[in-house]
Design a protein that fits this description.
Blueprint (H helix, E strand, L loop, with lengths): L7 H17 L5 H8 L5 H13 L3 E2 L8 E2 L1 H11 L7 H10 L6 H16 L2 E5 L8 E8 L4 E8 L3 E8 L6 H15 L4 H15 L5 H14 L8 E4 L1 H7 L5 H13 L1 H11 L5 E4 L11 E10 L2 E11 L4 H20 L1
Antiparallel strand pairs: 1-2, 3-7, 3-10, 4-5, 5-6, 8-9, 9-10
Helix pairs in contact: 1-3, 1-4, 2-3, 5-6, 6-13, 7-9, 8-9
């Protein structure tokens, strides 16, 4: 339906009802709507208009009561035609600037963007992990910990520092760890991190007859420590607890399905990949996302990049009754500020 297909009164009542449902989370009855709308019409007229909106697919009755809630189509009409975007909260902008510090590594920035989005919007924040074109090893250091564990400190590219802890099958002395680090730094500094493991395997095969047991163990440790990270998660999510806070008892089963989708990753990655190919903010309400599991939820996304080069997508996931007027501009500005931080 287009806006012209509805009367001004119907549009006003739909807007009021959607705003009330977002605020209170309860079905809205005709008496409550009549008292809040400010329209000089009778309660009977209000009921007739609500019935008409329900017939058009904008409202539905979730219970046997006379109260109604917006459908996905009702929310879509509201977002496209009636929504009044709110000015950005100055404190939220300050928080974004503090968290999205250009001096942080790309991995830290992605984590920070997800967390700050969740905190500011009180929804679940999600950011896809950028695929780095090159991750060159600059330096490695191995520090002994207790129980045969080793702290691996990697310096990647110009300034990105990564820490990993690995478990060794046998203890190595501090001198052995230093010798292994010196060997790796001398031979592989400047090498793409993803290629280091294959180089180490080849070196071990070629030198097997010439190295002692301790150095073989050290090189084996370096192979494990410098190999590719665990399979990439694809995205990071923060603030899932906000979804739990906003869920009603009857929606717990659907929320569990959504959390399962977070774990499977495939459906959500497909949606985010589609979003990355579009410009600006994208809004998916309910099953517009293309998956039944999102039926009671909305996903708002925006792409981010490095300068003009797209790197990924960030956004929020929350119930369809989220405060779109606050969330939409916050997703937009977060994507812009993440792009600016990565570009510096």
């Amino acid at each position: 339906m287009t806006e012209k297909a509805l009367s001004t009164r119907s549009i006003d009542l739909l807007k009021t009802l959607v705003e009330m449902h977002i605020r209170d989370g309860q079905p809205v009855g005709s008496k409550t709507l009549h008292a809040s709308s400010g329209l000089a019409v009778s309660p009977a007229t209000i009921r007739n208009i609500m019935s008409d909106l329900e017939g058009r697919g904008y409202l539905e009755s979730p219970h046997t009561s006379s109260g109604r809630v917006p459908t996905a189509a009702g929310y879509r009409f509201f977002v496209d035609s009636l929504l009044q975007i709110q000015p950005l909260d100055p404190q939220a902008i300050i928080a974004l600037r503090e968290e999205l510090n250009p001096n942080r590594s790309s991995g830290e920035l992605v984590q920070a963007a997800s967390s700050v989005l969740a905190q500011i919007t009180t929804q679940a924040g999600i950011v896809t992990v950028p695929k780095a074109e090159a991750r060159q090893l600059r330096q490695v250091e191995f520090l002994p910990l207790s129980d045969n564990r080793v702290l691996v400190i990697l310096v990647v590219n110009e300034r990105e520092v990564q820490n990993r802890i690995i478990q060794l099958p046998r203890a190595l002395s501090e001198d052995q760890l230093k010798a292994a680090a010196d060997l790796v730094n001398q031979r592989f500094s400047g090498t793409d991190l993803g290629d280091v493991k294959s180089h180490l395997v080849r070196e071990m095969e070629e030198a097997r007859s010439r190295i002692d047991e301790a150095m073989a163990a050290a090189m084996q440790m370096a192979q494990e420590a410098l190999g590719p990270d665990n399979e990439d998660d694809g995205y990071v999510v923060a603030g899932e607890g906000h979804l739990l806070d906003s869920a009603s008892p009857e929606n717990f089963a659907k929320l569990r399905e959504l959390f399962d989708a977070f774990e499977r990753k495939r459906d959500l990655l497909d949606l985010l990949e589609r979003s990355s190919q579009a410009e600006g903010v994208q809004i998916f309400i309910g099953e517009e996302a293309g998956f039944e599991v999102f039926g009671d939820y909305s996903v708002i996304t925006a792409p981010y990049g490095h300068g003009s080069q797209p790197l990924g997508v960030l956004g929020v996931i929350g119930p369809t009754r989220m405060a779109y007027e606050r969330v939409i501009p916050m997703v937009d500005v977060t994507a812009r500020m993440l792009t600016a931080a990565l570009s510096k």
